[in-house]
Amino acid sequence: MQTEKTTKRQSRHKLGMIKRAIQNAVQFDDWRWFFVTASVILGLTFIPIYVGYLAQTPAQNFAGVVYDRQDFEVHKATMVQGVQGHLTYRFMFSTEQGSEKAVKGFYLLLGRLAGAMRLEPTFAYHASRLLFGLLALVMIFRFLTAVFPDIPARRASFLLAATASGFGWIMLVFNWQPTAQISPIDFWLIDLYEFFSLVTFPHFSAVIILILIIIMAFDHFLTDRRLVHWIQAATASLVLIAFHPFSIIIADLAVAGVALGHWRANRRLDRGIVISGLLLLMIQLPLLIYNELAFSSDQYWEQFRLQMVLLSPPPVYYLLGLGVLGPLAVLGIRHVWIERDRLGIMAATWVVGVFGLVYLPTLLQRRFTAHLTIPLGLLAVMGVRSLFRQIPDDQTEQMGSSLRKWIFPLLVGLALPSSMYLIAAGSAYVNNLPSELYDPAPVIEAVDWLGEHADIDQAVLSSPRTGLIVPGRTGLRVYIGHPMETLYYDQKTDTVNRFYSKEGMSTEERRAFLETCGCSWIIHGPFEREENGDLQLQSLTELHLAFENEEVRIYRIDLTSHSPLE
Fold first, then answer.
1. Please, what's the largest Cα pairwise distance for the chain?
2. φ, ψ for residue 85, nearest 5 deg
3. How far apart are CA 164 and CA 506, in angstroms?
4. Is residue 258 classed as helix, strand or coil in its secondary structure?
5. Distance (Å, rounded) from C-alpha 174 to C-alpha 178?
6. What ranges do the domains of the chain cover?
7. pLDDT tens digit string along 116-158?
8. Which residues are CB-neighbours of 92 under 8 A, at least 6 positions away?
9. Which end of the chain is more exposed for a tag (fewer CB within 10 A), N or C?
10. Sign of the four-CA dihedral 237, 192, 148, 418
11. pLDDT digits (tens, 9 = 90+) for 464-482
C-alpha cells in the first residue's frame, strides 16, 4: 500500500515537473521572440541617425537627430545644466531672469549622470533613448502578457502598441489632406505613436514605464490589497510628476479605469477602491500645486506657459491617424465591457477619456494623446476576438484555420506602413544634407570657442538659427533660439532681424537695443547674414572683435564706449 502511494506521489511529481518544464519552455520562447523583435524595432529607430552621420562632411556637421531638432536642442541644453550640477531649470533660450524651477527633472538627472560618466551629451541622449526604449518595450510586453494569456494575441497587441500608425501613408499616396496647412498626424504628432516616441525622445519612454508601473501596481493592490503595491503606484506617480507633469493626467485616467474595471468585474464598488484612489490623488497634490505655482510665480514663467500652445487638429485627422486601430478599438470597448475584463476596461477608459480631453479649452490638447497606441492595440486585438466569437462555429470552420492564423499579421501589416515610411523618408531626407539638420563647421568652431571663453552667466545675441545650438553646446543663455522656450519670440524675431539688417536700425536704435538686451556677446555668421545684407558690425565701437574664422565673427559687447556708425 505504501509502495502504491509512493508511486502515485512520484507520478504526480514527475507530471508537475513536466508541466513546469513546458511552461518554462513556452515562457523562454516568448521572451526570446520579444527580445529579437524589440532589437529590430530599436534598430529601425537608429537608421535615419546612422544615415545622417554617414552623410556628414568636414564642412557640414550633423546635428544628431532627424525629427524635432528644436526640442532636441532644448533637452540637450537641459542636460548641460545637469552636467553643471543644477537640479533646477533656468531659461536657456531667453535672457529674461526668471527664477529657477524644479522642472525637466529627467534631463537634469540625465545630464548629471552624463557628467559623472564624462559622456558627450548627444551620445548620452541616444544611449538613454536606447536603454529607456528597451525598458519601455519590456514593460509594455509584461503588461500585455497580463492581459492576453495566449501568445498570438499577446504578440499582435505588442506589435500594434509598439509600431502601429494610421492612414497617413494612404493620404500621401493620393496627395490628399483635409486641411491644406495640416499634414497627416502620423508624421508629426509624436505623442500619440509609441514608435515615433521611440524614434525621438528618451523621456517619453521613461514616462510610459512609470504609467504602466502605476497601472499594474494599482491593479495588483486592488486584487490582493497588499500595501506594497499601493506604495509602488504612489512612488511612480510622484516620479512621473517630477519628470513630466502633464502625463499624470493620463496615469490618473488609467487608474480610474482600473478602479472601474474592478467594480465591473466584481459587480460591486467597495470602499477600499474609492479610498485607495483618493489617497493616490492626495499624495500627488503637493507636487501638482508646486508645478502650478512654478508656472505662475512670475511674469516670465507665466509667459512661458502661455507660449506652450499644442492644440489638436480637426477630428478627421485623429480618425485617419488612428487607422485600422480605431474601428477595431470600438468593437474592443464593447467586448471588454460585456466580458467584464478588468484591464480591458482600463484601456477603454484611457481611450475614451483621452478623446474627451483633446478638445477641452486648454493649450495642451494634443499632449493628452501620449502613448495612445498601447490601449488602442490592446482593444483592437479584443475587437478582432469579438468578431470571431460572433461568427457561428460552422461558418468559422468554413472560413478555415488560415484566416485565424493570418488575421493578426494582417492587422499588424495594415497598421505598420506609416511607421516604416517615417524611417525610410527620414533616411532619404537626412541623406540630402538639409540645412536645418546640418551646421556649417565654422559656426560650430565659433560656438565652441565661445563656450570656452565666455562666463557661464553671460548671454549671446545671434539669429534664432544660431541661438538654437548655442545653449546645448556651451551652457550659455541666448537672446533668441526656440519658438516656445524663447519668451516673446515673435517680437524678438522682428527685433533681431532689424538689428542684423543693414538698414533695419539707426545707430542710436542699435545702441539702445544693446543696452537692454542683456547680452555680452554677438555672433555674426552665415545665419545672421541671410537676407539681411552686409552689415559691418565692427564699425560699432561698443563691439570688440574677439574671434574670427572664414565665416563667423564673435564680438564682445562693451557699453562703456560710444561712437556713431561710420
1. 117
2. 100, 5
3. 56
4. helix
5. 12
6. 440-557
7. 999 999 999 999 999 999 999 999 999 999 999 989 999 999 9
8. 74, 77, 78, 81, 471, 477, 478, 481, 485
9. N
10. negative
11. 999 999 999 999 999 999 9
